[in-house]
Amino acid sequence: RARTESTEATPAAPAAGKDASVATKRENVTPAPAGKAQQQETSAAPATTSKAQPETAAAPPGQREPSSETAAPPSAPSGAIDGAAFKQAHASPSVRKFARELGVDLSKIRGTGPSARILQEDVQQFVKGALTGGALPGASASGGVSGGGSLNLLPWPQVDFAKFGPVETKALSRIKKISGAYLARNWVMIPHVTQFDEADITELEALRVALNKENEKAGIKVTLLAFLIKASVAALKKFPDFNSSLVSAPDGDALVLKQYFHIGFAADTPNGLVVPVIKSADQKGVLQIAREMTELSTKAREGKLAPADMQGGCFSISSLGGIGGSAFTPIINAPEVAILGVSKGVTKPIWDGREFVPRLVLPLSLSYDHRVIDGAAAARFITHLSGLLTDMRRAML
After folding, report:
1. What is the pLDDT of residue 134?
2. Percentage above 70 pLDDT, the chain
3. Number of domains within the chain
């Protein structure tokens, strides 16, 4: 039933430019921006660590992770690139730019173009080889948080599909090319566990509809995602380990507990998924959050998200409510330690003690890093979050 969903930041949003908000039977989710947007790496590096690399931005369009996690080609485990050799490489300016964004040392690549010219396809194959041949971008001999680990994977199967029937080759979007390595790294290196639950949002949906009627003239459209962001902040305050990042320390790995609450939301765009970030969500009301989501979604659809718009995230939300499904397994957006997946709300018969009554129920999927969070803590977190969504007044306490 569960399916893997990426939340890595890479500017993307629903192909129709729809917002990644929850859709109920009464109303669909608001159009999303560019956003599993990727956020290229929507999550931002902890304040105490070195500046993070883009989650999927700027060096993937998204927020940046600590430099220690910056993707580097397998040939340069430390992430260092031979500047002089890079300049001498036989490649066009566009290919050089593409290689820099992926952290690939062109001097390590043998070109297949005319006169051994390095083509974009050569860079892509180099990165693919790193992922499938035993090392991920940025991999090193170290297995700690700062290292990329060492994987002895089987090589990717090379198949001539045309011999089996007609085929068509379609180039990947730039966002997907960049975010792919980050998604693969996060899925392989983070021990994911997903906790499922449901929240009764019958009253919350009624409140949302009422707010939209009241603010119709102001042009503010409130989606369930705005309430999810607000409720998530309250849950993060009660369970601070979910608002942390695992980092390397002189005496071993350590947790950086953040005192700020920046929430990323995955937005689907025609070019791919991106994850814009609502900064200081704890200091904003639902209406202001809804307004900022609309602005970021518009920028995402137009491809105008800046790296800063996708950096600094503490916790991400990936909503498929406007599409459907009952549950899925979202991929954690490193260096964050958890991500919330939301599916489509459905009406179910719920026993109230005397009779069955129709209630609007929202499926929740919480993926977490088991190195940081225990199963019991995850169960408490999602149960608390479910309670907040059932009665949003509790989020104000």
Report:
1. 44
2. 73
3. 2
Tens of pLDDT, residue by residue over 129-163, are 777 654 444 433 344 565 555 667 778 899 999 99
Measure the CA–CA gap between 84 and 307, rounded to whole angstroms. Answer: 28
* Residue pLDDT, tens place only, 324-376: 899 999 999 999 999 999 999 999 999 999 999 999 999 999 999 999 999 99
Closest CA to 37 of 345, 321, 316: 316
Three-state SS for 343-362 is CCCEEEEEECCCCEEEEEEE
The answer to the question of residue 71 being in a domain is no
CB 369 within 8 A of CB 332: yes
With respect to residue 134, please indicate whether it lies within any of the assigned structural domains. Answer: yes
Rounded distance between C-alpha atoms, residue 140 and residue 128, angstroms: 17
What 3-state DSSP class applies to 246? strand
Instruction: Look up residue 378 and give its amino acid.
Output: A
The one catalytic residue in 90, 192, 370, 384 is 370
- 182, 205, 228 — which closes off a domain? 182
Give the pLDDT confidence of 56-81 residue by residue, as tens digits. 344 444 444 444 444 444 443 335 67
Residue from 27, 18, 17, 347 nearest 207 by CA: 27
Q: What is the pTM of this model?
A: 0.66
Helix (H) or strand (E) holding 129: helix 120-132
**Same domain (yes/no): 49, 165:** no
Same domain, 364 and 244: yes
Nearest to 133 by CA among 107, 152, 113, 106: 152
Domain encompassing residue 308: 4-65+192-396
Asked if 296 and 355 sit in the same domain, the reply is yes
Q: Looking at the domain assignment, is residue 77 inside a domain?
A: no
**Judgement on whether residues 155 and 94 belong to the same structural domain of the protein:** yes
178, part of any domain:
yes
DSSP state of 169: -
Which residues have a Cβ under 8 Å from the Cβ of 16 and sit 6 or more positions away? 31
Which CATH number goes with the domain that contains 329? Answer: 3.30.559.10
- The size of the chain, in residues, is 397
The amino acid at residue 5 is E
370 as an active site residue: the answer is yes
Work out the angle at residue 199's Cα, subtended by the Cα atoms of residues 392 and 20, and round it to the nearest 5 degrees. Answer: 85
